[in-house]
Amino acid sequence: MSESSIRSDFLVIKALEDGVNVIGLTRGTDTKFHHTEKLDKNEIMIAQFTEHTSAVKIRGKAVIQTSNGEMSNE
Ligand code: TRP
């Protein structure tokens, strides 16, 4: 993947419980789930928005850091 297709800084997601789902949604006219990553408590995922991924949905208790700040859905 070329650098120009990577759209942003990293997203850091830390799971605060078992079974947190990080769901990637497709870029383009159709907005569909394309990947679900399951995190257990204290697992961390570091991800970016890409040419394939325009949005991320997080289900379950987690701390999320982005360039917009840190938030928790606890
Ligand atoms: N193959 C996906 C992509 O390049 C991997 C991915 C990147 C992803 N960021 C994500 C999956 C965020 C889930 C959530 O777009």
Please, could you describe this protein's structure?
- By secondary structure, the chain is mainly β.
- It has a single domain, classed as Immunoglobulin-like (Sandwich), CATH 2.60.40.50.
- It has a four-stranded antiparallel β-sheet with strand order 4-1-6-7, with no helix packed on it. A three-stranded antiparallel β-sheet has the order 3-2-5, with no helix packed on it.
- It is globular and about 35 Å long.
- The mean pLDDT is 92.
- The structure holds tryptophan.
- Tryptophan (TRP) binds next to strand 2, strand 3 and strand 5.
Radius of gyration: 12 Å
Order of helices and strands: EEEEEEE
Assembly form of the protein: single chain
Bound molecules: tryptophan
- Mean pLDDT metric: 92
Computed structural class = mainly beta
CATH superfamily: TRAP-like
How many strands in all? 7
- Tally of discrete structural domains: 1
Report the β-strand fraction as a percent range.
over 45%
Uncertain ranges = none
